[in-house]
Structure to design on (438 residues):
């Protein structure tokens, strides 16, 4: 009987044989991909992220590309969506302008993204995750959290071994590779999956969490973007280790709710649960125009009014959504959907509108549109929506203004207050088509 669950014994990621010795290669199959960790059989939160996702799908479907540098991108955005690992060696990165990428790697094969295909592949992989546990929380097209606590009796194997088998299964059946991170919480599982990409498998245990985090930059903390990192830098804080020496009170006094997050996450304290997708998938509003519209100026007031509708429904149901989805239908009925994930769920018209606006702006290319829709998905109702963002004072002011407008509308009806974006601008343009909630 293999010494499963005894942390003195690791196992081989390839053949899963238990490793009884300290050797660097598997004593059964010779593979060097061995896993050993004192908490190996106790950790049950996993994060999975596909390697160079779009590029890997294209390579799988055209074996001639296998050893070539491949860039997915181009089209109207003119930037790199993803680069395979060969292209990355030449310095090509996501979000790089295409012309720069081709300067760095002139012999790269450039492929336009086929979003439908990637979404289908993403769904197939998610289904394989759901074979392991119902607690699967997708974060984007190619990544998800899994909570495997309590599944050991079902699988007759601890989570780490289940995940190693999963990653082998994805390679075998889907022809794609993934990287896996395992820990006791979401924060560290996600960091772990990024640790030794591609084909990675990393483990961060509770014992080592604080030391592991100490020399890492603050940007590793969920919610610390460029702007906030710059604020912290001005205050002399660059590493997570520095946060570990600070108390919660002063951190909250300086940075509000974010201060609490800094305090907790820097110490590896993260009790967020893995939340499977919610029943109601999205809340949206859309409208078909009397006449097709091509100009941004004409679309903006409609977008604003639809954002307010969506926000009103979210507030009424006391839910919030983390992904903003923009929908456009062109005169020839071609559908475009674009989405963007926010750092926190929102129910504010202002955030929905501003995010929708930045997505819409990019789509203005002379096409005449017959329909515009805006909505949010990734719904949640746990009160984590719209933390007051002390970094962006203007955003806080707008949120406060919006609450005031909501109160007035609550008293005097929906048309009591109109914002500058919509005032007098849209009545004549839109048909009275019912909106939808999926
Ligand atoms: N993506 C994009 N634009 C970006 C970043 C990502 O269109 N700026 C798309 C393309 C990626 C997919 O999302 O294939 C997944 O994003 P990841 O950040 O997980 O990147 P990859 O999977 O490509 O690479 P990695 O191996 O680093 O995960
Ligand atoms: Mg990825």
């Amino acid at each position: 009987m293999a010494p499963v669950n005894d942390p003195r014994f690791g196992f081989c990621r390839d053949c899963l044989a238990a490793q009884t010795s300290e050797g660097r290669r598997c004593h059964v199959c010779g593979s060097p991909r061995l896993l050993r960790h004192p908490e190996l059989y106790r950790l049950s939160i996993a994060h999975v992220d596909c390697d160079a996702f779009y590029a890997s799908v294209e390579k799988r479907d055209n074996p001639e590309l296998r050893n070539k540098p491949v860039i997915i991108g181009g089209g109207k955005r003119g930037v790199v969506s993803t680069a395979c690992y060969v292209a990355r060696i030449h310095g090509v990165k996501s979000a790089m302008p295409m012309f720069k990428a081709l300067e760095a790697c002139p012999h790269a094969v450039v492929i336009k993204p086929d979003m439908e295909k990637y979404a289908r592949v993403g769904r197939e992989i998610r289904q394989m995750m759901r074979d392991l546990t119902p607690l699967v929380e997708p974060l984007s097209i190619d990544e998800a959290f899994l909570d495997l606590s309590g599944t050991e009796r079902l699988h007759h194997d601890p989570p780490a071994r289940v995940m190693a088998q999963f990653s082998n299964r994805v390679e075998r059946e889907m022809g794609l590779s993934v990287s896996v991170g395992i820990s006791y919480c979401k924060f560290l599982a996600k960091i772990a999956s990024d640790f030794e990409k591609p084909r990675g498998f990393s483990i961060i245990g509770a014992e080592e969490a604080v030391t592991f985090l100490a020399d890492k930059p603050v940007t590793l903390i969920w919610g610390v973007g460029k702007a906030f990192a710059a604020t912290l830098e001005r205050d002399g804080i660059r590493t997570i280790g520095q946060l570990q020496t600070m108390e919660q009170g002063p951190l909250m006094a300086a940075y509000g709710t974010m201060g609490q997050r800094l305090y907790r996450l820097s110490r590896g304290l993260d009790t967020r649960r893995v939340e499977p997708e919610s029943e109601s998938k999205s809340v949206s509003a859309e409208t078909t125009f009397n006449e097709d519209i091509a100009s941004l100026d004409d679309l903006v007031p409609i977008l604003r009014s639809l954002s307010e509708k969506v926000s009103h429904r979210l507030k009424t149901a006391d839910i919030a959504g983390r992904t903003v989805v923009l929908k456009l239908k062109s005169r020839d009925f071609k559908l475009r959907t674009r989405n963007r994930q926010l750092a926190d769920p929102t129910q504010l018209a202002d955030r929905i509108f501003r995010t929708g606006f930045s997505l819409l702006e990019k789509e203005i290319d002379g096409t005449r549109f017959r329909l515009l829709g805006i909505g949010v998905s990734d719904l949640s109702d746990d009160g984590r929506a719209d933390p007051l963002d002390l970094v962006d004072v203007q955003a806080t002011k707008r949120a406060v203004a919006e609450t005031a407008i909501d109160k007035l509308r609550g008293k005097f009806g929906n048309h009591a207050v109109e914002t500058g974006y919509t005032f007098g601008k849209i009545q004549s343009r839109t048909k009275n088509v019912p909106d939808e909630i999926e």
